[in-house]
């Protein structure tokens, strides 16, 4: 069955302090939250929003679910397990299914895409997993959408899921796991606006496609909501059709350096494994960086850059993959949300490393609650 999600009521009491950081600093007088302020470069911020209180929804996918009979196949996107980002988050969902609902590690199989591979290669990978009896099979990334739909038609008794995918008139045995990336990106945009001193803030996208534009759109809206005069500069590593932008750290470093050279002192990336290069550029320039998908501060593969990572936008692919596997084990998919958004803890932000102080968190939580309540509608299309 599709499991029901429990509701936890969180009443968050947040207090004001005399000043806030970065763009929110007032160079001439204290900012108590009753009015905006200018920092040393003249970047004005809005009033601090009211403290947040309200209901948030948490998942309860694993309760009384037995996954021991499942053989789970996982088809990674470029970079695979160890990318410190999107794929690692999916892998964490599978690992949780092993630890929490009894999926046997020896009954799982992981296969990884290669750079610039053909559609036939994706079909072959998915067909191999299906022929070997894996059920369900989870494809990680929108690039698998068409291939998954085709293979699902060949194996109607096998359940398939595609993270970020979508195909019109897909077979009934395909589930698409989508996210409100723009909502989580809005929250880290708030953080960027509060932490920036130059009020020029950068965004590096891996590939210029609508999915990654959602990250850019939400981030820019979050920055500009807090600091309307802030400047957001953006760079995509590759254009649509060239997926190497998600797995080219040197190009990620070049892209980030270009934004830093324009004055950006906080840089957010949505670039998969290329994000390692973004972190490298930030460390070299002694500026701050924001990770994506996983809590990248705690990722071993980017540990050398953790001192510049102030937060990460959490795209809870791990939650979606785990919830989906648990739903298949329960033989009912009807409880999965149509979109993994802030309401269901499908996106969020990290606080590892202690760089998000209580004042900053107060701003973020207030805006988060406004989004959950529908008072703020976050765009999924960049404004310019």
From TrEMBL:
This is Basic membrane protein A. InterPro entries: BMP_lipoprotein (IPR050957), Peripla_BP_I (IPR028082), PnrA-like (IPR003760). SUPFAM superfamilies: Periplasmic binding protein-like I (SSF53822). PROSITE patterns: PROKAR_LIPOPROTEIN (PS51257). Residues 75-379 form the ABC transporter substrate-binding protein PnrA-like domain. GO terms for cellular component: plasma membrane. Gene3D superfamilies: 3.40.50.2300. Belongs to the BMP lipoprotein family. Residues 1-24 form the signal peptide. It is found in: Cell membrane.
